């Protein structure tokens, strides 16, 4: 699976996904780095069929209204350390891949992965 990690999440999340065999980039890897606009992120996501992982609820509105980005994982953990986020995501990577084979929008909290249909 292809992932694009938004600016407010750590770059190391892309590394964790890549280590699990996925193609994952962070906004820091893009030409405009963390200044990449939401519109540019949506465009890249659609062109490259990348699942956007973000904490930004604006992407939810965009997804629901315009079906952009390609697919969306909203991280709704509130403030969380990078270590705790990595500990939360790592055991769920295969579940995320399975989820996004048949769904387009999911939400990760500290306690569960919710699929929105």
Determine the mean pLDDT.
Answer: 97
How much helicity do the residues have? 40-55%
Oligomer: single chain
Q: Whole-Å distance between the termini?
A: 20 Å
Following the backbone from N to C, one meets helices and strands in this order, namely EHEHEHEHHEE
> Tally the helices: what do you get?
5
User: What structural category arises from helix and sheet content?
Assistant: alpha/beta
* Radius of gyration, in angstroms, nearest whole number: 13 Å
How many domains? 1
Number of strands: 6
Question: Main beta sheet, described?
Answer: 6 strands, mixed
Strand content: 15-25%
Identify the strand order in the major beta sheet: 2-1-3-4-5-6
What low-confidence regions span 5 or more consecutive residues with pLDDT below 50?
none
| Gross geometry | globular
Q: How would you describe the overall organization of this protein?
A:
This protein has helices spanning 11-19, 38-48, 58-66, 82-89, 93-102, and strands spanning 2-5, 23-26, 50-54, 71-75, 105-108, 113-116. It is globular, with a radius of gyration of 13 Å. The mean pLDDT is 97. It has a six-stranded mixed β-sheet, sandwiched between helices. It contains five helices and six strands; from the N terminus they run E-H-E-H-E-H-E-H-H-E-E. By secondary structure, the chain is α/β, with parallel strands linked by helices.
